[in-house]
Amino acid sequence: MEDLCLKTTLRLLQSADQIRARLSGDFSSVHGLSVNEVFLLMHLERAPLHRLSRIELARRMHISASTITRMAAPLEKIGVVSRQVDSRDARLAFVVLTEVGLEKLGEARATFAKQSGYVFRDRWTEGELEQLSDLLHRLTADAPGDLT
Questions:
Q1: What pTM did the predictor assign?
Q2: What is the DSSP string of 65-124?
Q3: Which domains does the chain have, with CATH numbers?
Q4: What is the tens place of the pLDDT at every residue in 11-48?
Q5: Which of 21, 27, 67, 69 has the fewest CB atoms found within 10 Å of its own CB?
């Protein structure tokens, strides 16, 4: 059983790397965004008022708050996100998705959907994809910030 778990984990990680590499090229060349930046925007889109604290974004993306700060800075410069300080606690700042960010995310999502089709179309039936999606959801069901 342990060998099967190891083999399955390795295949999942290799698959994720392969898909990420495929998405990375289009996101970068077409939209000027990284895969992680698109995920950041997706988390903000789903949040109330399209805003989350750096700490909450970090928790949802499984990275550090300082990484969120480094990711948000260039996104702020191009107007995709903004920074909003809490009116009651100046130490608390939110990353906020802007209208420009919503538009850019919509464009990136179309690319994401197209590339996702390429990944699965030739290898999987719709029933197999549904089953795979359900099985993968079991792995992530308790994770914060579900994007599906």
A1: 0.89
A2: HHHHHHHHHHHHHTTSEEEEE-SS-TT-EEEEE-HHHHHHHHHHHHHHHHHHHHHHTTT-
A3: 2-128 (1.10.10.10)
A4: 999 999 999 998 999 899 999 999 999 999 999 999 99
A5: 21
